[in-house]
Amino acid sequence: MTKEVRIPPSDSTKSVRYEIRGALARRALELERQGYEIISVNIGNPGAYGFRTPEALRLAMIENMPQAEGYSHQKGIYPAREALLSQQQARGARGASTDTIFIGNGSSELIDMTLRALLNDGDEVLVPAPDYPLWTAAVTLNGGRAVHYACRPENRFYPDPAEVESLITPRTRALVVIDPNNPTGAVYPREVQQQLVRIAEKHHLVIFSDEIYDGITYEGAQFTPIASLVSDTLCATLSGLSKVYRAAGYRVGWVSFSGATHGATDYLAAVELLASMRMCSNVPAQWAIQSALGGYQSIADLCSPGGRLYESRKAVIDAVSRSRFLKLTPPDGALYAFIGVKDTAPNFDDRQFALELLEQQHVLITPGATFNVPYNDHFRTTLLPDAATLTRVFERIDAQLEAWTAHHQSASPVLPTDARIADARGRFR
């Protein structure tokens, strides 16, 4: 018999967390294979909830397919970069050009690429908490150290600029801003953004502005592109087609560098080197960018009264207001609600609750601690399902919180998530 050889993973992955597609999601798939119907509200994938990409984008890909069979320039096709430049200039970004714009296989690839080109071992990056966990993971995997600045519920999940500045050390290289924010839905006031920009300029930090939800705001919330405020440091604006244009599967994202680009020649060359090593991004889908940016912005209809996202958001707010267990800072933007659990549910633990909710109510949520916060009394749901589905989801959440309060054995040891799921396989089959 051949001896089994153990292949250990890289040590660099041991401190990486990405539970959005982790153990709970794997358990949900197991339950579905057993015949259970799982309502997943854990992920921001518009196509999974019946949203369609605008027809103009689909047609643009089809009509340009003959021009999309070979590699493109490593930065992306010129018509797409030209359209992106026009958008950035219209928004007030200074210092950008078609040469400082890179198109990637989603903004996720570009987050990794731009950090890899910047960081040396031990360099620090200021990252919001809560954050979209890819940012912390990408910093870590590229040898850096993510230093989290708090965006607290009691402050509407806005950062405190003075606290952000207090975290800067000689090793700090960059400041990450996620606005509109995932997971909280916060849309930062302009004055908060201005203070963050001044801090970054004062300390010569690169600003990474994650604006993938830039067109998704509610109830008159005003989104300000941070590049419009930057002049004396380098600003990298990241966005893409996946959310606003409901084209997540196209895997099209971009980063536009603006501000003090004249001092970043070597860094931008390093980004281009990395872009060249992966040849180029998905060429057919790049042809959808020009149509997306220049066409009718149907996302505004979805976010207005009567629109599906607006009504789904309202359903979540109403459900939380009816609950004796839940609390919420209403999201002003993006596709999520970051929901807190009151003390009426004693000894609450987000991971344990998420597992019990999945096993007993067949609802999949994302525990709040996934988003790199030091507390465990929040969870995230997406706003993508229709209002009726979300109302049903929160009825199940409330029922499980009633069960938690009445029956949960708080004295029992809390096992790691993977161990709890393994235990659940035996108890719930």
Short descriptors:
429 residues; alpha/beta; Aspartate Aminotransferase, domain 2; 2 domains; 4-stranded antiparallel beta sheet; 13 strands; 38% helix
CATH architecture of the largest domain: 3-Layer(aba) Sandwich
- Provide the CATH top-level class of the largest domain: Alpha Beta
The count of β-strands is 13
For the largest beta sheet, what order do the strands appear in spatially? 2-8-7-6-5-3-4
Largest sheet: 7 strands, mixed
Give the low-pLDDT segments.
409-415, 421-429
- Cα(first) to Cα(last) distance is 34 Å
The 3D shape can be described as globular
* Structural class by helix and strand composition: alpha/beta
What fold name goes in the CATH topology slot of the largest domain?
Answer: Aspartate Aminotransferase, domain 2
Helix content: 25-40%
Please state roughly what percent of the residues sit in beta strands, choosing from under 5%, 5-15%, 15-25%, 25-35%, 35-45% or over 45%. Answer: 5-15%
Order of helices and strands: HEHHEHEHEHEHEEEHHHHHEEHEEEHH
Number of helices: 15
Please characterize this protein's 3D structure.
With 429 residues, this protein is α/β, with parallel strands linked by helices. The chain folds into 2 domains: 11-51 and 301-428, Aspartate Aminotransferase, domain 1 (Alpha-Beta Complex); 56-294, Type I PLP-dependent aspartate aminotransferase-like (Major domain) (Aspartate Aminotransferase, domain 2, 3-Layer(aba) Sandwich). The protein is built from 15 helices and 13 strands. The chain is globular and about 60 Å long. The two termini are 34 Å apart. The model is unreliable at 409-415 and 421-429 (pLDDT under 50).
